[in-house]
Amino acid sequence: MTLRRLSTLTLGAALSLTVSATAVVACSGGDESPADPSASGGGGGGSGGGSGGGGGTGTDDDPGGTGPRPAQAESLRMHLDLIELSHLAEVDHHGLYIDFGTAARAKYTLGNWRPSNGNGTGWGADGADGDETFTYAGRMARVYFDVREQSELTLRMRLRAIGTRRLQIYLNGRSQALPEGGVQFAEGSDFRDYDIAIPRDLVRVGENQIQLAFGGTSPVDGQDVSVAMSSIRVISGPAPAADEAFVEPLHDGLVSRVQIGETERPALLARTPTRLTYYVDVPEHAHLVFGVGTDSTATGARATVRVQAEGGEAQELWAGDVARRWSDQSLDLAPFAGEIVRIDLEAQGGEGTRVAWSAPAVMVDPPEQVAAAEPVQNVIVLLIDTLRASKLRPYNPQTRVQTPVFDDLVAHGTLFERAHSQENWTKPSVASVLTGLTPSTHRAITTEARLPESAELVSETFDGAGFHTASFLANGYVSDRFGFDQGWDHYTNMIREGRSTEAEDVFREAGDWIEQHHDQRFFVYIQTIDPHVPYDPPEEFLRMYDTRTDYAGQVRPRITGDLLERAKGANPSVIFDESDLTRLTALHDGEISYHDRELGRFMERLRTMGVADDTLLVITADHGEEFHEHGSYGHGHSVYQELIQVPLVFHRPGLIPEGRRIAQPVSTLNVAQTVTELANVRGLRAAEGRSLVGEIRGQLPSHPMLAFTNMLDDKRVVRSRRWKMVLSGINAKLFDLERDPGERNEITDLTQHPIAARFLRMHLGQYLGSRDRGHWWQATQREAQELQTEQAEMDDTIRAQLRALGYAN
Q1: pTM for this one?
Q2: Between vectors from CA 65 to CA 699 and to CA 289, what angle results, nearest 5°?
Q3: Structural contact between residues 496 and 475, judged by C-beta atoms closer than 8 angstroms
Q4: Which of 627, 597, 207, 659 is nearest to 402 (CA)?
Q5: Which of 218, 435, 508, 770 has the smallest number of Cβ neighbours within 10 A?
Q6: Dihedral of CA 620/625/626/632: which sign?
Q7: Whole-angstrom Cα distance, residue 546 to residue 354?
Q8: 404-411 and 578-609 helices cross at what angle (nearest 10)?
Q9: pLDDT of 335-357, one tens digit each?
Q10: What are phi and psi of 27, to 5 degrees?
Q11: Is 572 helix (H, G, I), strand (E, B) or coil?
């Protein structure tokens, strides 16, 4: 959509109101903007109370809101500013409008996922030609959109042909090409509109996928380009007359400052009939706050707010006539807490009336006030290699594994219930913990890749702040050979040095060093490896889970790494029977309990030194371990929860709330920025992770609550509190983790859960289309740090050390 086309389609005065989303947020004043104390809920002829599941506040008799935002917002805290997130709104004005070349298009194209790969979505760079914005498409390109009612569709595509004169369309994986004979593009270099009819029987209720197959490409700025796509409109029914005027709602133009009476507010502005749709994971104690009004003299427009939860029916929460005053409302979303919902802001009637939704937001009750605390004196980050969350009682009350020390730390600390690692094996996952960078950025994702020297480690930040820094590492992949030796006053890797990696030895060395250096603030990173192969716990811990003395099967402690590697894959050379599996899991569980005992001894030593109460302890893991839950063993091969959901606990007496459990999903990517904030130390300059201090103190983040996980360059995962989507190539599947925590029932037909699927798909697209993964939800993206892949020198010694850990290749 372009300003040039807007000017020919009668928006006229709206152009003078157009500002960027960033400018609007600045003008709105955020939470600190003072409201006129006389402001109160406006009228507009609407119903003040809600219906069908949500209550509302607002009155019909006062002169309308007079503050910069609805007065109801003053006692609440921002969670989602829907103006700031206007690029995530789906805009339906005489059809769903997909605007290319803007931040709004990523939610329909899976961002730029594998643009040059035939197994990707095929979209390249965004661009502009004068007022026309566009996105380059390759030989094949895909678009994903939602349909609510099955009907004949018309796709109106506005594009400029570059490397081809022909297009065929395939819908929802069907082999039938549309239209018969294809679309022939006109000669010339202008942008033109093309209408393609889609028969009703090919359309699905829920997600639909269009595959665009072009006839050729031409090179443009290093890309193979078929067309420059400006927009696609999905119209219900046959094509409208060629001269029918649509007010095409530009997302930049959608956000405006609107003055009604004496009050000017930031607003979403569109002409009737228009429906704006947001997908939201509703938190506890949430409210939908907005004002609605018009600066038009036309009458007859009516505004409606509907909310529909996944699996439920749409409920009308509020409706009212639109008048020349702000009608301020606060709708209670409590009935939808914990659900993914679709929120419709719809304006109908009074054809062409300009309707403004001012300062719409999802807001929550403010948390209890927390007194400012002194920075932590010291920081210890303990990463327990290969420890899946479900092995621990605070995550899985049914587990048999005994970890009394960990349980006590959780009881006196804060636990994140849905923490995810960035990868499913050690090197990339730990690199993300220590740098706050995603694997896509730090690129230490393959066996021989090393962390570039240009990557800043959290150890360097603490070192620069005057802390003593030390690392005690028991995994050969987290070593100097792979770039992990930056920023440490004391660096040791037991595997590389040929020394014991048992927890008692690692903790003893760490304790010795702390005892010598706790006269000054310190940052210590400890990576133990006991739950990793080879599984060989002391006998007393094996007997906790397998009391047999007559087991004569193939499982032997020191060869468990080799056995698991040979048990993997489609044609395993090792097959475990039930007796073998009993012994195998007992060995692993015994290692966890043994490690817990040694952790307890380490904590007691810190208490004896007098530093335990001054030290922030963070406990997490790099990945988990599979025991044939999904047909394999070990790790590094899948993105099921047993491999990517890990513990994350923060503990420091008097500072970290005791017994707090945080439900929203987070990533271990956030550890570095969290510990630096708690220590009042500068955060990592280029980190894509964010601080979790707000959540620890009871606040919700001011952006969508999701966690993402990578697997090499092939798979991506997005996780909400209840739902999970796995993208493999272009194929997506869904899991309902509330009803199916073991992921036994993968949902490949996304139309079964259209709202949950759309929520995850669109936010994953926004993430994959972002340059700055640390602020992936924002429309305006800063240039992110680009690191070049570096290769480590792999000699016979390092290969032998890694093989000893079960890394056969």
Answers
A1: 0.91
A2: 30
A3: no
A4: 597
A5: 218
A6: positive
A7: 72
A8: 50
A9: 999 999 999 999 999 988 999 99
A10: -70, -25
A11: coil
